[in-house]
Design brief:
There is one protein chain. It contains 14 helices and six strands. It is an alpha+beta fold. It folds into two domains: about 140 residues, Cytidine Deaminase, domain 2, CATH 3.40.140; about 160 residues, no CATH class. It has a six-stranded mixed sheet, with helices on both faces. α11 packs parallel to α13. The chain is elongated and about 80 Å long. The relative contact order is 0.09. The model has no long low-confidence stretch (mean pLDDT about 90).
């Protein structure tokens, strides 16, 4: 998050959450690592509320991530239409953190919010989610999209359906046939070099302009082989993560299951580098639904499960 959003009130903080996560969180527990006297936001996580009685187990797992990714403390937030359910989860996570690590604990239902701050009214205070809050308006002016809920993330990497799926499958087969013919009539090294150059050109175009469906299908087919996919993988970093995610998510929406996992993993990796774990997760989940043994998808799923920070990648990248 590059813009220094400010939260002056508890209501401000709750209205900031959709901007932090890219969607409006419902029935969620949230941890925000903070640092310094002005509580600058760092690592953040969100999880669906657990079944009643499972709060302590989830709190233990989440607290471990928050401890590892911020020694300055954390804000804990729980949201639910059931205020008591939110309260129990918020306090469970607060209590799972080391003493003093929970710098603010906040829970809310759809109309009121509460905190554990001394003197806060036991009846809570009113709050409302605003579509015109400063943080939301700033995000929109920067081209960011705030989705209505987490389920909308699925649409960003959803498989094509119906007649459109059949048309795209035909286009994919035609593209594959052309590539196979070229592979059989070209020196293998020259063919591989040509494929890498063609994919690099398509990616560069996709970052500059909108690609039509034929170009997206071509990119899906050509980037599916591991050696070409890995070239694309190495080009993704924190600086271009948002744009790379948009490109590879668009590719995944036109890709058939036989070539989609590569695009989905690239979309997931870009989202992780960008700092958007929710988008990374939905892309990885679709890749693993298609191929439960896909190695890159399993690697990314593990990184997400253990809360690996995106900065860890910078120390392992090879030179350009």
């Amino acid at each position: 998050m590059d813009h220094p959003y400010r939260a002056h009130t508890y209501e401000d903080l709750l209205n900031l959450l959709p901007t932090l996560f890219g969607f409006v969180p419902y029935e969620s527990v949230i941890g925000l690592s903070v640092s310094g006297p002005r509580c600058r936001f760092g690592f953040r996580l969100r999880h669906d509320l657990p079944e009643p009685g499972d709060e302590a187990d989830l709190a233990s797992d989440l607290a471990d991530h928050l401890r590892r990714h911020g020694d300055g403390g954390a804000f804990v937030v729980a949201l639910s239409s059931d205020a008591e359910r939110a309260r129990v989860m918020a306090l469970a996570l607060r209590d799972a953190l080391p003493p003093g690590h929970g710098r603010l604990t906040l829970w809310a239902d759809d109309e009121r919010l509460w905190t554990d701050e001394p003197g806060h009214p036991v009846e809570g205070e009113p709050w409302s989610l605003s579509d015109v809050h400063e943080s939301r308006l700033v995000a929109i002016t920067r081209g960011e999209v705030i989705l209505p809920d987490r389920s909308a993330l699925l649409d960003e990497v959803a498989a094509p359906e119906g007649e459109r799926a059949r048309l795209l499958e035909r286009l994919q087969h035609e593209t594959l046939e052309r590539l196979m013919l070229r592979a059989m009539t070209t020196d293998p090294e020259a063919f591989l070099a040509g494929e890498r150059a063609a994919v690099a050109d398509l990616v560069d175009r996709g970052l500059r302009e909108h690609l039509d469906e034929a170009a997206l299908v071509e990119l899906a087919v050509r980037a599916a082989p591991t050696h070409v996919r890995d070239d694309c993988w190495w080009r993704i970093d924190r600086g271009n993560g948002r744009r790379m995610h948009a490109l590879w998510a668009a590719v995944s929406r036109v890709a058939g299951d036989d070539v989609a996992p590569s695009a989905l993993c690239l979309a997931a990796f870009a989202a992780w580098q960008w700092g958007d774990g929710a988008r990374a997760r939905v892309a990885v989940d679709r890749a693993l639904q298609i191929d439960p043994h896909h190695r890159m998808a399993l690697l990314l799923a593990r990184a997400l499960d253990v809360g690996l920070h995106p900065d860890a990648w910078s120390s392992t990248r090879r030179p350009a």
